[in-house]
Amino acid sequence: MRALAVGVLGLALAGCSMHEGVYRIDPRWPPNVMRVRVAGVLERDGRYFVDVYPGDPPSAELFGGGLEADETPREALRREWREELGVDIEVGPLLMVVHRSFLLRGVRVSQVELVFRIERVRRVASWSREADHRPAWLDLDSLRALQARPEALFAALPLDGADVYREESLP
């Protein structure tokens, strides 16, 4: 019974927001979604390690994924690289924050992406490549020839720490 009550409370609060210490119902929820994503920049000799997706045109993004409620951004990034690539990483400084707004299957998504430098990589397990992912080392010209997401991040490469926040809104 207690689990049911907690589940119902969670559903009730999912469509609420905090305002002056009081929960209020957000009548737009759903279809609006807020997401925090973490990603890692691994650069070697002017080439960047990215996840390339086939398509017309092909696209690329940095390896990473969604932040879960019980972890820090650095923990999430380490977990994602371990799951996706079978490696342990040393996460360096935060390089950029990118806010993206886009439509996904008719739902407006607002995504904050925290981009960290990857300092060191150590293989810990074998990994099986997913059919739609193709890890690649690409230079800036090759990256810019693809549909790189988020565009604002890839346009700013190489990152020098001077411009740490970008916004991108897609139709």
Overview of the structural elements:
With 171 residues, the protein is α/β, with parallel strands linked by helices. Helix content is 22%, strand content 47%. The protein contains four helices and twelve strands, in the order αβββββββαβββαβαβ. It has helices at 2-14, 73-85, 140-145, 151-156, and strands at residues 16-19, 22-25, 33-41, 43-44, 47-53, 59-61, 64-66, 87-104, 107-123, 134-139, 147-149, 165-169. It has a five-stranded mixed sheet with strand order 7-3-9-8-12. Strands 4, 5, 6, 10 and 11 form a five-stranded mixed sheet that branches. A two-stranded antiparallel ribbon has the order 1-2. β5 and β6 (59-61) form a beta hairpin. Residues 1-21 have low confidence and may be disordered.
Please render the helix and strand layout as text.
Layout: H1 2-14, E1 16-19, E2 22-25, E3 33-41, E4 43-44, E5 47-53, E6 59-61, E7 64-66, H2 73-85, E8 87-104, E9 107-123, E10 134-139, H3 140-145, E11 147-149, H4 151-156, E12 165-169
Parallel strand pairs: 3-9, 6-11, 8-12
Antiparallel strand pairs: 1-2, 3-7, 4-5, 5-6, 5-10, 8-9
Short structural summary:
The protein is of the alpha/beta class and 171 residues long. Helices cover 22% and strands 47% of the residues.
